[in-house]
Each structure stands twice: as C-alpha cells, then as structure tokens.
Design a protein that fits this description.
Helix content: 10-25%
CATH superfamily of the largest domain: Mago nashi
Radius of gyration: 20 Å
Number of helices: 4
Structural class: alpha+beta
CATH architecture of the largest domain: 2-Layer Sandwich
Shape: elongated
Number of strands: 13
CATH class of the largest domain: Alpha Beta
Distance between the termini: 28 Å
Number of domains: 2
Largest sheet: 7 strands, antiparallel
Strand content: 25-35%
C-alpha cells in the first residue's frame, strides 16, 4: 500500500551548498545523532550548541598543503560495549567516533579561538606532569586514554580508569573534551554533510531508520519528493530539513 508523509520545514542557518559528491556515505548501523532528553531538545531548538559556535562543516578533503592534518589531542574512553573517541587536528578539524548500539562518525572544523582554548587547556607538559602512580588500574572493558602530541610528532599519554577519582589536572583536561564530544554527537546541523546539500533527481540517501530513498524531484526548489526503495513509501521533505531525517548517501555494496 502506498503511503505519503509530509514533513514540515524547520529553520536552518545558512551552510555551504554542495552536491551529492560532498555527502558522506552512511555507515552500517549509523545514526544521525545521539538523542537528547525531550526537555533539553526543546530548549536548544532555537539556539546553537555553545561548544559549536562558529564551527564549519568539514566537507571533502581536509588535507593541509597536500598532507594529512597533524594530530594534536586524542581522547578515547571505553565502558562496557560503548566506545567514544574525539580527536583534534591542526586547522581545527575535530573527528568523533562512537560505537555501541549504533555507530556515530562525525567531523567538524572549529574556529581558531576554540582550537586554541582546547589545546591550551590540554598541553603535553601538563599531561607529562601527571604522575601515573596517581591513576587507578584500568579494567579490560573500562579504560580511558588521553594523548597529547608535541609539534615534533612525539606524544605523551595517560591511561586511566574512567570510573575512578582522577587527579584534578587530568579531570580539568578531559572535561572540555567530553563536552565537545557531547556537543558534536548531539548536533544535527553543522556536523552533518546532508545540511546544505542540493538534491538532484536520482540521488540516493539513507534515512535514520536505514531505509534507502531516491530523490524523484524537487518541487519549487523547496520541497523534495523521495521514493523509498526498501518499502512502498513516498515522502515529501523540506529541502532545508533533510539533515533531520537522513544520515548520508547510499553507496551500493
């Protein structure tokens, strides 16, 4: 049975306009974002998440002078079956990877002042000064690691138990990284390559429930008609709101 769904538009700030070639593929079992409590979602609906103020989409190649950006900070935490990672690179590129019930892979470019704030809060010298004897022994499924890189490519890291009391210096270093990880994981705009995407007939997208949709037409340059290829469904979505419902482009296996 054919079913039609009309999804109304929500306001979206101006983002870089791009075609399907700049849209990231949707990994298996991936999600758009981690869900927020309903009350928090309503509160933030009219506002940008502060941690991402001034951030830009990280579309396409992020090479700097033909080279991969140099890593600056890497924070990894594993608790049970859930693993979270946030990595900061030169140029302001931030990449997160979360695995568990679903997979979340996102990247964004933060502005220079934000990059300076994170790198100043977590320096290689301050991390080296933390005595490893102060850190509780990790468990196989409960393990965190903070690594900070120097300009010469060397690094210092500290491995610690995420559920134990931490030295203040280490807690002060990882708290902003945890906040950044949360902000990026909850964001549905600047961290999504679907935001700003200009749909064309024939493009194929993967929805948040992992159905595949094909763009059939764009009505009045505002509403997109999409036909589901995995169920007998046609939907109409405001072009500026596609990022709320689709994870990325479909790539044939």
């Amino acid at each position: 049975m054919r079913r039609t769904l009309l999804i109304l538009a929500l306001a979206l700030p101006a983002l870089a306009q791009h075609d399907i070639s700049k849209v990231d593929p949707a990994p298996p079992d991936s999600a758009i974002a981690t869900p927020m409590p309903e009350a928090q979602e309503r509160m933030l609906r009219k506002y940008d998440i502060p941690d991402l103020a001034g951030a830009q989409q990280a579309l396409g190649s992020q090479l700097i002078d033909g080279h991969l950006p140099r890593p600056l900070i890497d924070y990894l935490s594993r608790e049970g079956g859930v693993q979270q990672r946030v990595s900061i690179f030169e140029g302001g590129l931030v990449v997160i990877n979360m695995t568990g019930a679903s997979t979340l892979f996102k990247r964004v470019i933060i502005p220079p002042d934000a990059l300076a704030a994170y790198t100043n809060a977590t320096t290689i010298d301050s991390l080296r000064a933390i005595d490893t004897r102060w850190l509780a022994v990790v468990e196989p499924e409960r393990r965190s690691q903070l690594r900070v890189y120097g300009k010469d490519g060397t690094y210092v890291d500290r491995v610690f138990h995420p559920g134990k009391v931490l030295p203040k210096a280490l807690g002060d270093a990882i708290t902003p990284l945890r906040d950044l990880l949360r902000a990026i994981s909850e964001d549905r705009q600047v961290t999504s390559s679907i935001a700003g995407y200009e749909p064309q007939p024939g493009d194929e997208l993967v929805s948040d429930d992992h159905n595949v949709y094909r763009v059939m037409r764009v009505v009045g340059n505002t509403v997109v008609e999409l036909k589901c290829l995995t169920a007998p469904t046609t939907i109409y979505v405001a072009k500026q709101d596609l990022h709320q419902y689709f994870i990325g482009k479909h790539v044939a296996q």
